[in-house]
Each structure stands twice: as structure tokens, then as C-alpha cells.
Write a structure and sequence with these properties.
The chain has helices spanning 3-12, 22-34, 97-112, 136-141, 181-184, 194-206, 254-264, 287-294, 337-354, and strands at 40-41, 45-64, 82-84, 87-89, 116-126, 149-152, 161-164, 166-175, 221-229, 239-248, 268-276, 279-280, 301-303, 316-319, 334-336. With 356 residues, it is α/β, with parallel strands linked by helices.
Length: 356
Amino acid sequence: MTDAGDLLVRLVRTPSPSGDEHRAAEVLARWATAHGLDPEIDDAAVRIVVDGDEPGPTLLMASHLDTVPPGDGWSVPPYEGVVGAGRLTARGAVDAKASVSAMTAAAAQLKANGGLAAGRLVVLATYSEETRDTSMPRALERLGEPPDAAVVGEPTSLQPCIAQRGQLLLELHWRGDQVHAGWAAGRQPPPVNAISLAARDLTALGAMVFDRTHPLLGAVAVTPTQLEAGVARNVTPPAAWAMLDIRTTPAYDHAEVVAMIRATVGARVEIYSDRLVPAETPADTRLLPALMTVRPESAPFASPTCSDWVFLRHLDTIKLGPGDSRRSHTADEWIELAEVDAAAELYAAVAREYLR
């Protein structure tokens, strides 16, 4: 088995649900040390640095060691790391231990082949990316000077993602009058029904138009995902609550979207989460041309999924990694080991091209 594949198998056989990544971090660090690298571990990440011969820019390659829980529906034990016919099946095989393994193997390859011409390569394997407690901000602070460019390791089938949607979560709250349903029809004035208010506002949201669209991501999408109301079958509802999942684009900032929602509904609107802002590769990118030079057949695309790119959105950044994103978080998550090897080669080639 190749270096990247060997590391990936070791990592998936070490469970690392969000918040419990320390054993996987130690596995990664031991492997890196055995392959000539000098890893550092703290409570934010495993860091690996390969320095160039001359001064130059810093290229960051960042992914995450944590996974979602295995869940149900597996045909094999989710942490056994079953290998057959060139395919690895395990939780985390795609999202995102394949990227971590390929980035680390690329760093080892570069170090073994004499290092880099200039600048430096930094590999970060962070924790808790799948939760609201991602360690990426702390890991970036501890780098000292910010990197000049970054590759975010997430499954993209090795195609460069150059834009991703953000996620804005809003809570809507309605208040009504609680009375006996039998007396409600004849009461004057009629009792305020929180469900009726919710129905009116949710209908209005469905008719909202966002005039500014993104050339790759399209329009902002507003989706009600949760709704709660009522206390009993014979009582008018005194309250209703809904959650909106809003997938944003760089065409609007989150404050604008919140203002538009508040102008459309009568509900009280509370921000549940607005940290996952949209991101896109800048027009003056040097990183994307470096990738296109070493892999001319690359087809840039936009992604509907969020990632830690949100913390690197002010940099020259692309999202790139092995595996199909649609297999993330699924039962029987799997990846072709040959694609992990190809990712390691591609990461190394991009680093050599950008850092020269």
C-alpha cells in the first residue's frame, strides 16, 4: 500500500468523532515523524511545516481529523477500515481523512525529494470542524503570520471548488393568544393564532426574490427546516417557532439577508448562527493558475456545502480533495485508494508550482 493509503487506513481505524481527536492526532504525528517530518500537536491542530530553500510565500493545506458519528445502516463495521478491490470503506474515509492523509503524504514526499525551492508549506489537521466548535481559528492564530494562499481539504473529486455557499440560521418566533378552541370562533376580537401568523410569514418567505445572483452559485436559498407550535388539540396556540436554513452567496452579506427577512415577516427574528459566510476564490488568484498548470484538465466548480474555508475567505483559497462529497456522512462511506494517491501527487505538484 502507498504512503497516503497506509496513513488513511491507520486514521480511519482510529475513531475520532468531534471532540475526541487526540488518538488520531497521535497516529498522524507518529506517521509524519517516521517519514522525516517534524509535526507539532496542540489543542488546535497537528502542524507540519516544510521550509523552502529561499524566502517566499506560505502555502497552507488544511483539513480536519474529526468525523461525524457513524450512525446506522452500515454493512461493515464503520471503524474497521475494510479494504477490498482497491476501495476503503470506513467513517471518515472521504470526509476528510483522505485529504489529511494526502496532504501529509505530499509533505513527506516533498521533504524526501529535497524540499521546496522557496517559501514554506504548512499542513494543518484541525479538530471539531463538523461542529460549531471548530479549532481552525485557534490553529490559524498560532501560525503567527497569515499564509498567502490556502488549499482546503474537502472531498471535491479532485476538482477545484472556487466558490461555496454560506449558511445563515435564523429563528422565527410568533406569539398568540391561548384560549379554548371551542370559544375561539365567537370571541371578539378573535384570538391571535400563532400558527396562522407562522403560515402567513412562511408563505411570504416563499415568494421572496433575491435580485442579485452569483454567476456560479445562483440565488440565495431560504428553506424552513423546523416548525413547532401548539400545546393541545383543543387550545389555540400561544406560540410558534421555526428555523430557517438560508444558503447564502457572495452576492449578499449576512446582515443584508437578515434585514430583508425582517422586512418580510412579522415574526421576531433571532440569529442562531451567522458565522458560516460564503467564500470564493479571488479574481487575481495565483493558486488556481498553479493548479491549472499542473492539471490542465481541472474543471472549476461551485459547492453548496460549507467548510472551514469561511476562516480563510480573505486569502487566495481553493477547496480541493479526493472523494465524492455526496458520500460524506453516509453509511458505508468509501473512497478509491488510487484517488488518495492521486491527491497526494497533486498536492505536491501544486506546492512545487506555487512555491518556486
